[in-house]
């Protein structure tokens, strides 16, 4: 990020996530998240120079439909689709625009109106972009399940076989998520579950995954507005959170050549993005005390501990057993309750993570607050693939 301008988070907004078919339409959700972000930053829509709108399930120019309800000033609006990393990709582009000097105040919004049930292709009449991933998965996982469960369950199974991880370790991750979500009014599921509750739930993959270990499809929206330091100063904006570093990675041949499910679900993308961010910011994982990471399945949260450098490779079970992933431990992971409890509307997820960490660094997270924060890490992963890791820093009031 040498030679680039500092980028501050001026305003964030989100709406509570809902089950499919229950909440408002995508455009109403997106517009409301934008209004909340503008109000949070004390901004007017006509101060925004550019906008990036993230969603996965929708027709072309859904971004305009949602944003027009919040304002119409003729600015560039770019529609973004990068699977589950869509929201953070919109934020990545917004940050780049400000950091490069192309704009001073940029909106990133993500929304999703999802269908019930497992994720499936919207265009079965053409070549599937996951064809290479499916072929690799099919050689390693021989069970009849929806592909997302096979991908991440297969990665968890590989971790169990390689490092002795147990089903209870994944149950501990899920139980922790429920305890955190109990303090989050934005979370869809707020009932506290014990490890035994998680283990007693219906099995999706015997010995590998129970139902609560998989995140639910949900609908929702979130938004963030990023600005330059000069813009914040001129307009008297209280922007206490800086994006200290950010990296996006995609797959390399190693994703397929490694011939293991842990690589196939993006651990290598995560590791490379995290290393780039730590180097650019001049901090390490030992400096991080809070993280919002991509727990689409409890298995991916566990694997991501290692990829983000929170513990050594193969050390995730010990990290969990020692309580280092929660309050009183080393790194509070997913204080929001994460995707497992909050839900996973694909286009909104990354910006909802930004919402949580911005409030954490401001000291305004209420009962979820992690004290004495200076840095926070966000990890948002999409198979196919893309991974965005963002490091936030408190810069005072």
Overview of the molecule:
This protein has 397 residues and is of the alpha/beta class. The protein has helices at 26-41, 62-68, 86-100, 131-138, 147-163, 167-181, 195-200, 229-234, 254-257, 261-264, 267-281, 298-307, 316-321, 338-342, 346-362, and strands at 7-14, 50-54, 77-80, 105-112, 203-205, 209-210, 220-228, 241-249, 290-292, 332-333, 375-382, 386-394. The strands form two sheets. It has a ten-stranded mixed sheet with strand order 3-2-4-7-1-8-12-11-9-10, sandwiched between helices. β2 (50-54), α2 and β3 form a beta-alpha-beta unit.
Features:
alpha/beta, globular, 15 helices, single chain, 10-stranded mixed beta sheet
What's the helix-strand series?
A: EHEHEHEHHHHEEEHEHHHEHHEHHEE
Major beta-sheet overview: 10 strands, mixed
**Rg calculated over all Cα atoms:** 20 Å
**Strand line-up across the major sheet:** 3-2-4-7-1-8-12-11-9-10
Oligomeric state? single chain
Mean pLDDT: 95
Shape: globular
Give the percentage of residues in beta strands: 15-25%
- Low-pLDDT residue intervals, each spanning 5 or more residues: none
- Total beta strands: 12
Total helical segments:
15
N-C termini distance = 24 Å
How would you concisely characterize the structure shown here?
This protein has 397 residues and is α/β, with parallel strands linked by helices. It has helices at 26-41, 62-68, 86-100, 131-138, 147-163, 167-181, 195-200, 229-234, 254-257, 261-264, 267-281, 298-307, 316-321, 338-342, 346-362; strands at residues 7-14, 50-54, 77-80, 105-112, 203-205, 209-210, 220-228, 241-249, 290-292, 332-333, 375-382, 386-394. The chain is globular, with a radius of gyration of 20 Å.
């Amino acid at each position: 990020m040498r030679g680039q301008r500092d980028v501050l988070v001026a305003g964030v907004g989100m709406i509570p996530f809902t089950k499919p078919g229950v909440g408002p339409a995508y455009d109403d959700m997106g517009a409301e998240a934008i209004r909340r972000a503008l109000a949070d930053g004390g901004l007017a829509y006509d101060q925004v120079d550019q906008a990036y709108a993230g969603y996965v399930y929708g027709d072309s120019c859904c971004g305009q439909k949602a944003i027009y309800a919040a304002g119409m000033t003729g600015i560039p609006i770019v529609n973004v689709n990068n699977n589950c990393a869509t929201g953070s990709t919109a934020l990545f582009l917004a940050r780049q625009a400000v950091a490069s000097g192309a704009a001073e105040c940029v909106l990133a919004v993500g929304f999703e109106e999802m269908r019930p049930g497992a994720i499936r292709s919207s265009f079965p009449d053409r070549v599937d972009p996951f064809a290479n991933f499916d072929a690799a998965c099919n050689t390693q996982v021989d069970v009849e399940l929806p592909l997302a469960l096979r991908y991440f369950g297969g990665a968890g199974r590989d971790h169990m076989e390689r490092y002795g991880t147990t089903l209870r370790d994944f149950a501990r991750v899920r139980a922790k998520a429920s305890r955190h979500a109990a303090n989050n009014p934005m979370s869809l599921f707020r009932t506290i579950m014990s490890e035994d509750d998680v283990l007693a739930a219906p099995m999706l993959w015997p010995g590998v995954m129970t139902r609560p270990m998989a995140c639910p499809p949900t609908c929702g929206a979130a938004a963030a507005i990023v600005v330059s330091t000069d813009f914040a100063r001129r307009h008297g904006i209280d922007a206490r959170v800086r994006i200290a570093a950010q990296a996006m990675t995609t797959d390399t041949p190693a994703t397929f050549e490694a011939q293991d499910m842990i690589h196939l679900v993006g651990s290598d993308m995560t590791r490379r993005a995290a290393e780039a961010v730590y180097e650019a910011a001049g901090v390490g994982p030992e400096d991080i005390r809070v993280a919002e990471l991509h727990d689409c399945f409890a298995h991916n949260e566990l694997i991501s501990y290692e990829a983000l450098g929170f513990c050594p490779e193969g050390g995730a079970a010990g990290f969990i057993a020692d309580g280092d992933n929660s309050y009183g431990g080393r790194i509070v992971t997913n204080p929001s309750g994460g995707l497992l409890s909050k839900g996973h509307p694909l286009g909104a997820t990354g910006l909802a993570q930004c919402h949580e960490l911005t409030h954490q660094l401001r000291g305004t997270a209420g009962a979820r607050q992690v004290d004495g924060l200076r840095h926070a890490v966000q990890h948002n992963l999409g198979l196919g693939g893309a991974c965005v890791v963002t490091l936030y820093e408190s810069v005072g009031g």
